[in-house]
Amino acid sequence: MTERKSVETIAEGVFEGGEPYLRVGSGRPLVYLAGFALTHANPTGRMRQIALASVQGLASAGFEVYYTSRAPGLAVGTTFSDIAASHAAGLAAHFGEPVDVLGHSTGGDLALQLVVDHPEVVRRAVAASAAYRLGPVAKRAQLAMIASLERDGRQRCSPTPRA
What we know:
About 35% of the residues lie in helices and about 20% in strands. The termini are far apart. The N terminus and C terminus are likely disordered. α2 crosses α3. A six-stranded mixed β-sheet has the order 1-2-4-3-5-6. By secondary structure, it is an alpha/beta fold.
């Protein structure tokens, strides 16, 4: 039976481009690009527990995992290429060599953009649960969420988005 190390130490930081990260584990660096989030900050409360649970296995397997998202305060019109460029600069400055990257959901799309635009910062990449576009249900849900945020700054989640 394989013995699994637990995540013991959690550190917080910010990459050069302003992308916040939670760091857990030790070993070869692995940058975990998180999926869509309403806030671009290190998660807190229940969302922090979920984020750490998402990377527990990776940290236990011997990686130093950097769970990260987009930088806060992105300007309207910011593209995925812009976000990838910011991440690439931050990764190059922080690590000084190519690193492994795992992107989940929207983070998977970002991982692919990093590989295409900035292969020099990526050692290996995995895109998990990523798609080139949203299906109709997810698209309606995200449009409804955006409309709600624009209306009063609050997110409303519904298990069954309406057309």
